[in-house]
């Protein structure tokens, strides 16, 4: 039983739990109907993203410096400063969008997408906290286009009425020239604003990335941090949990849009985010052809490279030829691997160095990133924690998803397809009836275990209740070790092949 020695539990974070950071790596319990939980906890964690102080009645023009709008320099920041002047900023990075060529002093909304609306404003944009509006001031007199008010709830699930109505509605309109006197700038920014929400299904890591940060990135990454985030439902907890990502997206302080009553002025605005697909970046829809691999690189930059130590790429060039490292996601409560210890020993006997990755430990996301990005393979039952597949090394690592009874297709769509798009080797292990704890609750010939697809169809409009309560929340798995060995062995030999080919191609390169 020497294999047991190769299995170690990642326990150190249990000692370093920071309660206010309890990471929302919770079950991907419910996708379409998730628990309506919003964080209410106060969090003593405002350091990264500061509020602005109390309303200043200072000058209308030169307040930039005193308000600390320092531009935090970052990699690649100079590439878009070609002509030194005030370049016409392309706010909309999407191909073939009605808003891609936005004349100055106009508002444009693209509402053509099923998932999200997004609006753009070019010109003199000012916040009006009282009415949660962005006002666009055309040059006097009579420069404005027709005064139409646009309204938008900036979230990526507009088809999901339940959650969408919890998102604050922002109003956008062209102001009348005489309104300018009542809207003098308290804070003048030299970068456009991007209005997003920290609300929505914010308890769940999958939703945080899928509905929040990935859409935010693909909507505004082309601005290279020259964008001010103005956030609805801002909370210090959000800022603390995702501080690295937030400062990777924007080089400026975040504006807490609901609490900050001052008039902030910007040279343009983006309101809302684009959405492409589950954990997807569709490069053909972006002007700069970015892909999900670029999003991974973004994460690698924000988590790997400390901001102050300049670019000495300290990552090992190629992995050693040792045993591939495998992380087993260890869930709690539901969709648990009942024979996890045996599975870990099995993986070790197949040739992996095995690490148990406890979830919901309160570890900061940077620590989760450090673990997962060091794995050659990640194994886990379907759940939000598998969102960390985004941390695996594209083109090199592997993901094995264990799909419980009744959610095989959901599993494939949510994590399998994205994993493949990242160039990960993907294995899906579909649990059989006998491996599911549901076989202890239902007789073998009951439709719920005998034919989940039919069970779901027979529910009609209540299909998702069955999925939620029975297949997602009511099920653990106990893997058939003989069958699962095949999955692990396939993954192991594929990883060894990749290691070999990387070593030989590294040998072929001239050493520098
Ligand atoms: C848009 O108009 C504002 C004044 O309202 C002006 O300062 C800015 O330079 C204009 N932008 C462009 C790209 O012409
Ligand atoms: C990417 O977007 C293009 C253009 O909208 C679309 O035709 C294509 O089907 C999308 N690709 C995927 C994989 O969704
Ligand atoms: C994006 O891809 C298209 C089509 O392959 C190409 O014409 C274009 O130059 C690419 N753009 C960038 C910024 O790489
Ligand atoms: C699944 O396992 C967990 C942990 O052992 C247990 O608390 C839970 O009740 C189990 N659920 C089912 C449906 O067996």
Automatic annotation (TrEMBL):
Keywords: Glycoprotein, Glycosyltransferase, Membrane, Transferase, Transmembrane, Transmembrane helix. It comes from the Eukaryota. It holds the Pfam family Glyco_transf_61. It is a single-pass type II membrane protein. One of its GO terms (molecular function) is pentosyltransferase activity. Residues 290-397 form the Glycosyltransferase 61 catalytic domain. The keyword Glycoprotein applies. It is found in: Golgi apparatus membrane. GO terms for cellular component: Golgi membrane. Residues 69-89, 306-326 are annotated as: Disordered. InterPro entries: Glyco_transf_61_cat, Glycosyltransferase_61. The chain crosses the membrane at residues 12-34. Pathway: Glycan metabolism. The keyword Metal-binding does not apply. This is Glycosyltransferase 61 catalytic domain-containing protein. The lineage of its organism: Eukaryota, Viridiplantae, Streptophyta, Embryophyta, Tracheophyta.
């Amino acid at each position: 039983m020497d294999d047991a020695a190769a299995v170690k539990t990642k326990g150190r974070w249990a000692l370093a739990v920071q309660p206010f950071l309890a990471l929302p790596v919770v079950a991907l319990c419910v996708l379409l109907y998730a628990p309506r939980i919003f964080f209410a906890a106060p969090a003593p964690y405002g350091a990264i993203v500061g509020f602005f102080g109390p309303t200043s009645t200072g000058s209308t023009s030169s307040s930039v410096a005193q308000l600390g709008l320092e531009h935090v320099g970052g990699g690649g920041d100079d590439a878009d400063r070609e002509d030194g002047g005030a370049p016409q900023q392309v706010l909309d990075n999407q191909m073939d969008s009605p808003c891609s060529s936005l004349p100055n002093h106009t508002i444009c909304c693209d509402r053509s997408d099923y998932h999200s609306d997004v609006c753009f404003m070019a010109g003199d944009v000012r916040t009006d906290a009282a009415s949660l509006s962005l006002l666009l001031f055309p040059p006097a007199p009579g420069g404005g286009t027709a005064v139409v008010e646009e309204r938008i709830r900036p979230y990526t699930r507009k088809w999901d009425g339940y959650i969408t109505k919890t998102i604050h509605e922002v109003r956008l309109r062209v102001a009348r020239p005489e309104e300018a006197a009542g809207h003098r700038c308290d804070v003048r920014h030299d970068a456009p604003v991007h209005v997003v929400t920290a609300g929505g299904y914010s308890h769940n890591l999958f939703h945080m990335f899928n509905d929040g940060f990935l859409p935010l990135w693909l909507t505004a990454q082309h601005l290279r941090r020259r964008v001010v985030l103005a956030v609805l439902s801002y909370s210090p907890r959000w800022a603390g949990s995702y501080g690295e990502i937030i400062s990777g997206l924007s080089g400026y302080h975040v504006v807490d849009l609901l609490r900050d009553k001052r008039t902030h002025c910007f040279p343009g605005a983006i309101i809302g985010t684009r959405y492409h697909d589950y954990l997807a970046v569709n490069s053909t829809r972006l002007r700069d052809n970015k892909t999900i691999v670029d999003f991974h690189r973004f994460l690698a930059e924000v988590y790997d490279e400390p901001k102050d130590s300049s670019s000495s790429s300290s990552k090992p060039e190629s992995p050693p030829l040792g045993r591939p490292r495998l992380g087993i996601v260890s869930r709690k409560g539901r969709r648990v691997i009942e024979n996890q210890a045996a599975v870990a020993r099995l993986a070790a006997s197949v040739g992996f160095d095995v690490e148990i990755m406890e979830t919901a430990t309160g570890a900061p996301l940077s620590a989760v990133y450090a673990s997962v990005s060091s794995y050659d393979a990640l194994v886990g039952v379907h759940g939000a924690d598998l969102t960390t597949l985004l941390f695996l090394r594209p083109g090199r690592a592997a993901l094995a998803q264990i799909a419980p009874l009744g959610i095989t297709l959901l599993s494939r769509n949510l994590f399998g397809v994205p994993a493949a798009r990242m160039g990960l080797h993907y294995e899906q292990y579909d649990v059989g009836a006998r491996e599911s704890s549901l076989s202890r609750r239902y007789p073998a010939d009951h439709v719920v275990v005998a034919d989940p697809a039919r069970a779901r169809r027979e529910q009609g409009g209540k299909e998702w209740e069955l999925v939620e309560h029975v297949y997602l929340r009511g099920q653990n798995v106990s893997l058939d070790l003989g069958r699962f060995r095949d999955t692990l062995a396939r993954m192991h030999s594929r990883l060894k092949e990749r290691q070999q080919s990387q070593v030989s191609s590294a040998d072929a390169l001239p050493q520098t």
